[in-house]
Every structure is written in C-alpha cells, then in structure tokens.
Amino acid sequence: MGRLLFRVAAGVAVVLAFFWLLSVVVGLLIWGVVVALAVGVVVLGVRMLRADSAGRGR
C-alpha cells in the first residue's frame, strides 16, 4: 500500500511539474509577442514620423 501511494504521489508531482513548465513556456511566448508588438509599433511610428518630416522639408 505504501509503494502504491508513493507511485500515485510521484505521478501527481510529475503531472503538476509538467503543467507548471507548460504554463511558464506559454507565458514566455505571450510576453515575447507583447514585446514584439510594442517594438513594431515604435518602429512604425518612427518610420511615419520620418516620412512626414521628409515630406514637409521639400
């Protein structure tokens, strides 16, 4: 009975560790997408400002 309980506890620990690791990976992917979107918006804004200032200077 003790070994069975130990195996069940080990199995539950492995499943919990797997889902925790999966949530960490998904969280990092979401943060990566958010950072990429922020960088893209900044780059697009800089390009638009440069294009606007180049058009006015002529």
Automatic annotation (TrEMBL):
Q: Which UniProt keywords apply?
A: Membrane, Transmembrane, Transmembrane helix
* Transmembrane intervals: 5-22, 28-49
Which superkingdom does the taxonomy of this entry point to?
Answer: Bacteria
Q: Does the keyword Transmembrane helix apply?
A: yes
Question: What name is this protein filed under?
Answer: Uncharacterized protein
Q: Which organism is it from?
A: Streptomonospora nanhaiensis
- What is this organism's lineage? Bacteria, Bacillati, Actinomycetota, Actinomycetes, Streptosporangiales
